[in-house]
Amino acid sequence: MRIAMIGTGYVGLVSGACFSEFGVDVVCVDKDEVKISRLDRGEIPIFEPGLDDLVANNVRAGRLTFTTDLKSAVREADAVFIAVGTPTRRGDGHADLSYVYGAAKEIAEAMDGYTVVVTKSTVPVGTGREVARIIRETRPDADFDVCSNPEFLREGAAISDFMRPDRVVIGTESERAQEVMRAIYRPLYLIETPIVFTTLQTSELIKYAANTFLATKITFINEVADLCEKVGADVHDVARGIGLDGRIGRKFLHPGPGYGGSCFPKDTLALVKTAQDYDAPLRIVETVVDINDKRKKQMAEKIIAACGGSVSGKTIAVLGLTFKPNTDDMRDSPSLDIVPALQAAGAKVKAYDPEGMKEAREMLPGVEMCDNAYATMEGADAVSIVTEWNEFRALDIERVKKLLKQPLMVDLRNVYNPDDMRKAGFDYVCVGRGTTEAGAPK
Questions:
Q1: Given a cut of 50, is residue 438 above it in pLDDT?
Q2: Is 263 a catalytic residue?
Q3: d(C-alpha 148, C-alpha 167), whole Å
Q4: Rounded to two decimals, what is the model's pTM?
Q5: Which of 335, 381, 323, 378 has the alpha carbon at shortest distance from 10?
Q6: Strand-pair partners of 2
Q7: pLDDT single digits (tens) 173-203
Q8: What angle do CA 124, 125, 127 make, to 5 degrees?
Q9: How many CA atoms within 13 Å lie on the side-chain side of 402?
């Protein structure tokens, strides 16, 4: 069994490396010659725990290779996975499928014998049908089937998610293609991983429905957190109280500054647009998108309010810039709204992130990037935790207190215990942990 993985971004590289760990011969293809050269030298262009070792081991074993030659990779492949980007299209919010369709045309020109073409990229309903049409139009004689095989990888835990998934979803109406996909995923079948076979359209929709549901859970608990602050309740206890209900579940009930990353923002928006196109609007998801966009800006206002209503001329230390810990991904991170808003209000911002500094320097001009967490706090008027990296969970609180001009922490991830922080002499502001002195309804 040989696989060609078109695209060596996050999904393509992780998926290719994991398939090779299954014992499959995988060729990862990318047009970016610099990226392929780096991969050939053993340099991983993204940060994902464990990925460097996984890639190195399978390259050494001869099961994983990298190339810019799409034709040779596709010609020898039993299955070709399309794992190119599907960013939000400028102007209308739809997913930009130009890279997917471009890859489909090139694959069609290179295929030799029966080939299963698999969309691994997150794509709207109907994309698989269009990929099949493009291939058929380009190569009327081609022997192929198109499958949908969405990924459900969490950045920071992607390898574990791939190797021990909750489920594998495969959309195809061809028994021949099903057999190829069963062979590829045989190691997961042997450990009794649920494998859901369905239609192309259903598989495509499952991916969007899953991501938007999780985004809705995040947005729900964020709004509940705001209410908790008003009524004097603790959102963590609320989340635990409802999360222990098996119908609801505990995951994705952590309040914070809003969701970001490469998936939730673009996927919620794309599903909203698809639903509107088919005259079946998803009002809940439309609201989720709107609330999340506003929430990130509200977090900057929360920091400003904690500083007495003004940050003009003040220095704010920001801990964490990536959208979540254990990744270097800055896409749609809350920091991209929070930091510029603080700067616009007259603040000087000093920041540190364990993995996101390189990209952050380009995306957040005017920010003083520091070498460690404590360097951000020296002479600062307040410190705010924006991303909950583990190293921020056990700061030397006394040292923090001495470095700051005043002991003020705005913890947007609820890393610390409010009582402990107040006993330590801090003015501690967090999310959704109301005081017993809450006001009455207006």
A1: no
A2: yes
A3: 14
A4: 0.92
A5: 323
A6: 25
A7: 999 999 999 999 999 988 999 999 999 999 9
A8: 75
A9: 6
- Distance CA(301)–CA(344), nearest Å, equals 12
What are the tens digits of pLDDT across the range 103-116? Answer: 999 999 999 999 99
Q: Decide: 183 and 157 in contact? Cβ < 8 Å.
A: no
- Residue whose token pair is 């899953």: 210
* Residue 222 main-chain phi, psi, to 5 deg: -65, -40
| CB atoms near residue 298 (< 10 Å) | 16
For 432, half-sphere exposure in the C-beta direction (CA atoms, 13 angstrom radius) is 23
Q: Quick check: 152 and 12 in contact, CB under 8 A?
A: no
Distance CA 261, CA 143 (A): 37
Q: What tokens were used for 29?
A: 């293809």
Radius of gyration of the chain from Cα atoms? 24
How far from chain centre, in Å, is Cα 144?
32
Length of the chain: 442
Query: Over 162-192, what HEC string results?
Result: HHCCCCEEEECCCHHHHHHHHHHCHHHHHCC
Please say whether the beta carbons of 242 and 228 come within 8 A: no
The active-site residue, picked from 147, 263, 370, 430, is: 263
- pLDDT one-digit tens code per residue, 44-103: 999 999 999 999 999 999 999 999 999 999 999 999 999 999 988 877 888 899 999 999
- Cα(44)–Cα(195) distance, rounded to whole angstroms? 30
Beta-carbon count within 10 A of 167 CB: 12
User: In this structure, what token pair is assigned to residue 232?
Assistant: 């004097």
Quote the pLDDT of residue 434.
74
CA distances from 17 to 25, 52, 117, 335 (A): 10, 10, 18, 31
pLDDT digits (tens, 9 = 90+) for 342-375: 999 999 999 999 999 999 999 999 999 999 999 9
